[in-house]
Amino acid sequence: MMKRKKAFVLLCLMLSIESLTLGSNAQNSIKDEASTSNPSSSIAHPSFRYQVGVCDWMILKRQKLGEFELAKQLGCDGIELDMGSLGQREMFDNKIRDPQEAAIFKRTADSLDIKVGAVAMSGFYAQDLTKRDNYLALAEDCFDTMDKMGNVEVAFLPLGGSGNDWSTNKEKRAIIVKRLHDIGEAAKARGKRVGIDTPLDAKGNLKLLKEINSPGIAIFYKFQTIVENGWDVCKDMKKLGGKNICAIHASNTDKVWLRNDSLIDMPAIKRTLDQMGWGGWLFVERSRNVSMVRNVKMNYGNNVRYLKEIFNSYPTPAVALDSKGRESAYVNTIIGRAQKATDELGITWTPMGQNVQNIIANRYFKLNDIYAERDSIKKSDKQLAEAQCDSKLYRSHFGFDADLSTYLNPQEIERVKDVMTYHVVKVTYDAQCDMIPTLTEEEKAQILTWLKEARELAIDAESSKKKHEVFGKYKGRINNYLSKRGYDLNKEREEWYKRVKARGGEL
Question: What residues pair up with 290 in beta bridges, in sequence order?
Answer without folding.
Answer: none
